[in-house]
Amino acid sequence: MSNLSQLNVQALQWSGHSLKVLDQRLLPDSIAYDDYQDAAGVTDAIASMRVRGAPAIGIAAAYGVVLSAMQHYPNADWQAAVEQDIKQLAASRPTAVNLFWALNKMQQQLVTPSANPIAALTQLAQKIHADDIAANHAMGERGADILGNAKAVLTHCNAGALATGGYGTALGVIRSAHKRGHLQHVYADETRPWLQGARLTVWELAQDGIPATLIADSAAAWLMKSGKIDWIVVGADRITANGDVANKIGTYSLAVLAKQHGVKVMVAAPSSTFDFSLETGDEIEIEERNPKELLADCYLTDGSLVSAWNPVFDVTPAELISAIVTERGIVIDPGKHGVRSLEAC
Ligand code: MRU
Questions:
Q1: What CATH number corresponds to the domain at position 101?
Q2: Are 171 and 270 in the same domain?
Q3: Most ligand 1 atoms within 8 A of CB, residue of 93, 158, 271 to mutate
Q4: Which residues catalyse the reaction (predicted)?
Q5: Pair (62, 173) in one structural domain
Q6: pLDDT computed for residue 9 by the predictor
Q7: Ligand 1: which residues within 6 Å by Cβ?
Q8: Cα(75) to centroid of ligand 1, in Å?
Q9: How far from the centroid of its chain's Cα atoms is residue 25's Cα?
Q10: Quick check: 326 and 276 in contact, CB under 8 A?
């Protein structure tokens, strides 16, 4: 098996004048890229989930701002046109704060006087991209330290190279722990309805030669009861000041089950995932996607008695989390301390 970098598969590739986005909806059956040359295209790539995962959508949006500047500069009012595109990019998905974090950084650069604004914006987008990869490697090592001799873990959704600049948050921890020789097995939830676990996570793990077993989401309690896993390791879309964590729908149920079974829960996320402007997870907007992702077309008619509710994230209260790992440091038992200690670093 070759690993992802040998396959040269990356969620995002900057060509210098366009953004190539791997269409993750087609994995693992085919590896196909779409080439975007404007912010409207990148907005659509995020909203349609060709690119997904909190850090990856932030990075994509940053490149979207570069494309916008390339399109409008040096026309009169070019900055106003780019600001409009930033608003459009920000409306693509609501929950992952990395999107707004990256757009905010790009917006600050936009209004900073520069002899060559395109070069300055490009450099910043590439820095956001490179910093995310570096953060993942740092978290991988820290998280592997905490896992210690754990032999098997469960992960949910896809928090891997595909969801980030590269290497992954939760899968970064898993990759680092596996390299150390302790971690022998990874269980992955299917992650309905979009199947990030079944289509993306087990594919990534297979490329790296890490033994993985896919389970139906509803098998997680029974897996924990069997004593087969020591930890659950997941990523995050937004972490509030008290340590509450928004992540893929189903994470909250896993954390409740983990408490019952004495399994520990680790959240790995870069500092771009923290939202210190929100005190608790109650304030996070949870994205609800089209009922079509859940329900057969025959029910989706006016007046049907059957409908579908499709929230795609949930919030796990801090007290159910054993450790939050970032590139800046670790918080053990965030339910006791919150995560403000990471803010000033
Ligand atoms: O809807 P998605 O696929 O964008 O959701 C992704 C997740 O929930 C991930 O767990 C999260 O973004 C962390 S990715 C490093």
A1: 1.20.120.420
A2: yes
A3: 158
A4: 237 (proton donor)
A5: no
A6: 87
A7: 52-55, 96, 157, 159, 163-164, 169, 196, 235-237, 247-248, 312
A8: 37
A9: 15
A10: no
The verdict on 258 and 213 lying in the same domain is: yes
Catalytic, out of 237, 244, 275, 314: 237
What's the predicted TM-score (pTM) here?
0.97
Kindly state whether residues 222 and 170 are assigned to the same domain: yes
Total domains in the chain come to 2
For 209-258, how does the pLDDT look when each residue is reduced to its tens digit (9 = 90+)? 999 999 999 999 999 999 999 999 999 999 999 999 999 999 999 999 99
Tell whether ipTM is more than 0.90. yes
pLDDT band at 4 (very low <50, low <70, confident <90, very high): low
Q: Is residue 270 part of a domain?
A: yes
The domain containing residue 14 runs over which residues? 4-133
Residues 25 and 152 in one domain: no
Q: Are residues 198 and 230 in the same domain?
A: yes
Q: Are residues 225 and 249 in the same domain?
A: yes
CB 248 within 8 A of CB 191: yes
Catalytic residue flag (residue 237): yes
Q: Is residue 238 part of a domain?
A: yes
- 188's enclosing H/E stretch is strand 185-189
Question: 3-state DSSP call for residue 289?
Answer: coil
Pairing of strands 212-215, 245-248: unpaired
Identify the residue whose C-alpha is closest to ligand 1 atom 6: 53
Buried b (16+ CB within 10 A) or exposed e, 305-343: eeeeebebbbbbbbebbbbbbbbbebbeebeeebbeebe
With the most atoms of ligand 1 within 8 angstroms of its CB, the residue from 237, 289, 313, 327 to mutate is 237
In this structure, are 273 and 192 located in the same domain?
Answer: yes
pLDDT at 337: 87
State the distance from the centre of ligand 1 to the C-alpha of 162, rounded, in angstroms.
10
Residue 8 has pLDDT above 90, yes or no: no
pLDDT in tens, 114-172: 999 999 999 999 999 999 999 999 999 999 999 999 999 999 999 999 999 999 999 99
Q: What distance in angstroms lies between residue 306's CA and the mean position of ligand 1's atoms?
A: 28
| 138 domain residue, yes or no | no
